[in-house]
């Protein structure tokens, strides 16, 4: 059984600092990482692999050549092979052009896939559109916001615990299907050093525009319906409440009253 | 040259210096200044000063000197031996001297250096170097400083400051006066190896600029420091040999020694370091590996094997005993996310933690030598955790720090029932070839007395911290006796009673285990030459203060 996991390389935002003058991100020294939600998706795939014999995991990413790093990282974490979709013609793709390219690559390279797992969104773009769009393009049933993913006993369906507004729902879909994942293990996996070494021996196939049956005008910037026109930081919120010259007990009462009014406490 | 003259700082209005007077106010409003990481409690003292400039510091020191008020100096208060916990007089906090002053390339050596005030934290220094963003330098009014900074930013390589004493909230100056070391000392040596210059203020309020490589003791072992009026202080360098291991016990002394080395590791009893120049090194990609083993003995054997394999260059080589892993497992059972790592494998009975250079983009990684060494000691690379992305390195580092943090938590809890209880953490290092003997002594004695204990730390430098966690006062007493036995054995093997924590106020009695009364007197006379009234950091290193 073949599971495809789509992954994305994103900037490591925990260490990102903002230039106080320009308000833009300081990119120097900022490393790239595997998008955390993609890592959750991979984590679900690895758990299925450990519980069901005969499962192989292929990770797929689209990006510049250095996006290979996230494939290698995924191979360390338990994937068996990778597909790097890279070509200058893909540059500037919006979510639609990205989804179209990923879907076509999956169809071309892993035609016998049964389950596609993706992160619910990337922490840089935050659109949460690519997963559902791939499902639409591939004509797959989709379940979003999965926190638990397992195969049913017959292995013909996937059973997903889905996060909803006020709790969880358990939903099943017939395979092949696509699941977007919002959570996995609380603690990230740590591969062994042997896994790290061996990951570099696993196969990574490189796919370019010529390998895909997509007309050139549907690729990259040309094939995009949307464009990012401007990026700017949200205006800082300046409102605050300052209590001065109060006794501790009185101040505590005031603060409690404020929090209750704002419904932070009951 | 062994003669040097001190200078005076510009005059400032002493009354403008921020100060808190009276112990009651200090206790009520500045309680953080009553202790440090050692948890030693301050005794009543009268003043708390916050100088914002060196000139203000000089004014404070002159005032205290005139009044003959003893004073203690505090940086980030992360020390483990109570060095900056005042017992009388005044406390001077250097926390406002916290600016990076310059980044420059030293032409003769070609190395990049940072000049910084004493209270820049290691963490801030590290992150500023990581992103190469130091706004103060960019906005400097000094064109040369701006130019050097621009050159630094243009250099395509990344740089870092190698000493890594785990506690990254420590101040740079504090780490210099304590000659801090840590895991990476295994490869890069202690802080001493990276200090290229300093400014040091004496108890009379005058200062010296001491670059490395300029002032050396005379063939007779002497330095002469003239003050601005021309009065001479004669310093006779002690003639004891240094232990053949890392050590922060007592003053550094050597024939024809560099003056700067006298102040590094002197725990601030000779002068107040207000700024330092330190060298940087090109940053390389690293991998951290936690290698699980079947037993403590197996891990000790592997540590020996890794050290003697010349083809493997490790940055650090750290040890975790089986009972240290048990402590973390207990945390993980209560709350899986606390430790930040996956569950520690049940069959892991000890671990080594190593770091080394690693190029994640290299396709044919060859670590066959490492693998062979680990296999020959009964381990397997499959039973390890590895990480090389910066967030992974950070998470592994947190894991590394987790054992001592956990122990501190347990002790704090026990203190509620027995206020007299404190942690007993050994800090002895022994020369190469004696680690196993020391380890056998640690384990057999702790087990004999049925104490709760665990061990972790710098096995690469034959420097493992044994931590005894007394459950009652009787166990505390037993543990303290054991500590002395360990210290005596370490010294008998040619080691040090304090490899990195220093002596401060808490470990003064162990200085006597390592040095003869005559040798300690030699140290005292160095102190007396530079601080004749014995005002500076009283009770540190020398429990009964020398007075004029």
Short description:
The complex is a heterodimer of chains A (266) and B (548). Chain A is α/β, with parallel strands linked by helices and 266 residues long.
The CATH superfamily of the largest domain in chain B turns out to be FAD-linked oxidases, C-terminal domain
Mean pLDDT of chain A: 91
Q: Approximately how much helix is present in the residues of chain B?
A: 25-40%
Number of strands of chain B: 22
How would you portray this structure in words?
The complex is a heterodimer of chains A (266) and B (548). Chain A has helices spanning 36-51, 68-76, 95-109, 130-138, 193-199, 248-261; strands at 2-6, 9-11, 17-18, 25-26, 32-34, 56-62, 81-85, 113-119, 142-151, 157-164, 167-174, 177-181, 204-207. Chain A is of the alpha/beta class. Chain A has a 9-stranded mixed beta sheet with strand order 11-10-9-12-8-1-6-7-13, sandwiched between helices. Chain A has 6 helices and 13 strands. The N and C termini of chain A lie far apart (50 Å). Helices cover 26% and strands 26% of the residues of chain A. Chain B folds into 3 domains: 3-96, Uridine Diphospho-n-acetylenolpyruvylglucosamine Reductase, domain 2 (2-Layer Sandwich); 100-282, Uridine Diphospho-n-acetylenolpyruvylglucosamine Reductase, domain 3, CATH 3.30.465; 286-492, Vanillyl-alcohol Oxidase, Chain A, domain 3. Chain B is an alpha+beta fold and 548 residues long. Helices cover 33% and strands 20% of the residues of chain B. Chain B has helices at residues 23-29, 54-67, 122-131, 135-138, 143-154, 172-177, 185-188, 259-263, 296-308, 322-334, 368-376, 390-417, 435-448, 473-492, 508-514, 517-530, and strands at residues 3-5, 7-8, 18-21, 47-50, 71-74, 90-93, 100-105, 112-117, 159-160, 195-201, 206-211, 222-226, 232-236, 272-279, 281-282, 286-293, 314-320, 350-357, 384-387, 424-425, 453-458, 463-468. The chains are: A alpha/beta (266), B alpha+beta (548).
């Amino acid at each position: 059984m073949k599971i495809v996991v789509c992954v994305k390389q994103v900037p490591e935002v925990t260490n990102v600092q903002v230039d106080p003058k320009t308000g833009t991100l300081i990119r120097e020294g900022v490393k790239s990482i595997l998008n955390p939600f993609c890592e959750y998706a991979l984590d679900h795939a690895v758990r299925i692999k450990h519980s069901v014999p005969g499962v192989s995991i292929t990770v797929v990413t689209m990006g510049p050549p250095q996006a290979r790093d996230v494939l290698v990282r995924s191979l360390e974490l338990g994937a068996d092979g990778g597909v790097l979709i890279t070509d200058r013609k893909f540059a500037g793709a919006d979510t639609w052009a990205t989804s179209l390219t990923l879907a076509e690559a999956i169809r071309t390279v892993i035609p016998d896939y049964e389950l596609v797992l993706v992160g619910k969104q990337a922490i840089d773009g935050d659109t949460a559109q690519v997963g559902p769009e791939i499902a639409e393009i591939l004509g797959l049933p989709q379940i979003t916001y999965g926190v638990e993913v397992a195969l049913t006993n017959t292995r013909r369906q996937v059973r997903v615990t889905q996060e909803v507004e006020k709790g969880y729902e358990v939903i099943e879909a017939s395979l092949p299907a696509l699941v977007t994942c919002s959570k996995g293990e609380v603690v990230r996996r740590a591969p062994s050093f042997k896994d790290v070494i061996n990951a570099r021996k696993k196969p990574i196939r490189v796919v370019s525009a010529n390998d895909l049956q997509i007309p050139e005008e549907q690729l990259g910037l040309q094939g995009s319906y949307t464009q990012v026109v401007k990026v700017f930081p949200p205006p800082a919120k300046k409102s605050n409440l300052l209590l001065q010259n109060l006794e501790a007990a009185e101040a505590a009462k005031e603060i409690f009253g404020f929090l209750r009014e704002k419904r932070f406490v009951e | 040259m062994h003669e040097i003259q001190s200078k005076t700082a510009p005059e400032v209005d002493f009354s403008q210096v921020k100060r808190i007077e009276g112990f009651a106010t200090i206790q009520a409003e500045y309680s953080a200044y009553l202790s440090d990481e050692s948890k030693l409690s301050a005794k009543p003292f009268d003043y708390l000063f916050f100088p914002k400039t060196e000139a203000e510091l000089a004014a404070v020191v002159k005032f205290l000197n005139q009044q003959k008020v003893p004073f203690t100096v505090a940086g980030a208060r992360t020390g483990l031996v109570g060095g900056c916990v005042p017992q009388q007089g005044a406390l001077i906090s250097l926390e406002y001297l916290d600016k990076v002053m310059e980044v420059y390339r030293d032409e003769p050596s070609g190395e990049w250096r940072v000049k910084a005030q004493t209270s820049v934290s290691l963490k801030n220094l590290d992150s500023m170097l990581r992103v190469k963003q130091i706004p103060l330098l960019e906005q400097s009014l000094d064109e040369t400083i701006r130019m050097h900074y621009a050159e630094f930013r243009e250099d395509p390589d990344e740089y870092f400051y190698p000493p890594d004493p785990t506690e990254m909230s420590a101040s740079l100056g504090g780490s210099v006066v304590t000659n801090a070391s840590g895991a990476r000392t295994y490869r890069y040596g202690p802080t001493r190896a990276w200090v290229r210059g300093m400014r040091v203020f004496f108890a009379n309020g005058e200062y010296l600029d001491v670059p490395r490589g300029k002032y050396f003791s005379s063939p007779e072992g002497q330095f002469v420091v003239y003050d601005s009026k021309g009065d001479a202080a004669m310093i006779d360098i002690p003639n004891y040999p240094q232990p053949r291991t890392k050590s922060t016990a007592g003053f550094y002394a050597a024939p024809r020694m560099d003056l700067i080395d006298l102040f590094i590791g002197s725990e601030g009893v000779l002068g107040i370091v207000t700024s330092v120049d330190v060298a940087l090194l090109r940053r390389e990609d690293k991998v951290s590996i936690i290698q699980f083993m079947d037993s403590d003995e197996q891990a000790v054997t592997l540590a020996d094997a890794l050290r003697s394999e010349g083809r493997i260059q490790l940055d650090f080589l750290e040890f975790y005993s089986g009972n240290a892993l048990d402590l973390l497992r207990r945390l993980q059972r209560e709350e899986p996310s606390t430790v930040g790592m996956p569950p520690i494998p049940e069959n892991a009975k000890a671990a080594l933690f190593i770091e080394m250079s690693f190029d994640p983009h290299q396709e044919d990684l060859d670590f066959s030598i490492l693998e062979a060494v680990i296999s020959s000691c009964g381990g397997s690379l499959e039973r390890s955790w590895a990480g090389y992305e910066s967030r992974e390195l950070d998470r592994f580092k947190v894991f590394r720090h987790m054992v001592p943090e956990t122990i501190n938590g347990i002790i704090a809890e026990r203190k509620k029932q027995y206020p007299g209880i404190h942690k007993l953490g050994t800090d002895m290092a022994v020369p190469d070839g004696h680690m196993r003997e020391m380890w056998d002594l640690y384990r057999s004695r702790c087990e004999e007395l049925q104490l709760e204990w665990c061990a972790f730390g710098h096995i690469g430098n034959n420097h493992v911290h044994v931590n005894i966690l007394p459950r009652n006062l009787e166990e505390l007493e037993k543990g303290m006796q054991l500590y002395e036995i360990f210290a005596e054995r370490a010294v008998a093997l040619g080691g040090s009673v304090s490899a990195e924590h220093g002596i401060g106020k808490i470990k003064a009695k162990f200085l006597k285990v390592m040095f003869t009364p005559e040798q300690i007197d030699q140290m005292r006379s160095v102190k007396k030459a530079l601080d004749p009234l014995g005002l500076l950091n009283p009770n540190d290193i020398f429990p009964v203060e020398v007075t004029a």
